[in-house]
Specification:
Length: 159
């Protein structure tokens, strides 16, 4: 799971989890002014967290997959559906394909867990990004942490 200049990995070590949180804090809490108590929702312990790290060890981006009972409120209780969320790429690393690579890595993690669908709540300005990756919007726009969002979904193909 590598690309020029950075690598992707599932965050299992405490230092990697801390790096995921640091990226999320920089992007969501500082840049987008999401209240910290909303950003850190207590679901990270049961999530698969993916981290993008530059070759010199600097964290560049992160995202997570919720699945099973911990995702039921996001997936309508569908055990075949996972919820992609907390996708964040540092401003200095945007436009390098890291976000798309993180989405694909999270989809791979979903497949490994037997999931057939990935659902997400996209910030409305990012709809085109997710559409290019095969996601389809559904339902009306809604606010989340004061930011307009839309629900999106993608049916996964098997490996």
């Amino acid at each position: 799971m590598t690309a020029p200049g950075y690598a992707l990995r599932v965050a299992t070590e405490p230092a990697d989890i801390e790096a995921c949180f640091a990226v999320r804090k920089e992007v969501f809490v500082v840049e987008q002014r999401v209240p910290e108590e909303l950003e850190y929702d207590g679901r990270d312990g049961d999530a698969v967290q993916v981290l993008a790290v530059r070759d010199d060890g600097v964290p560049l981006g992160t995202g997570r997959l919720l699945y099973g009972p911990g995702a039921a409120d996001r997936t309508g209780g569908d055990a075949d559906t996972g919820s992609l969320g907390r996708l964040a790429v540092r401003a200095t690393a945007r436009g390098l394909g890291i976000g798309a690579a993180l989405v694909r890595a999270i989809e791979d993690a979903a497949r490994e867990r037997g999931l057939r669908v990935v659902d997400l709540h996209a910030q409305s300005h990012a709809l085109g990004f997710y559409e290019r990756l095969g996601y389809e919007a559904y339902g009306p726009e809604f606010p989340d942490a004061g930011i307009p969002h839309r629900s999106m979904r993608r049916v996964l193909r098997r490996f």
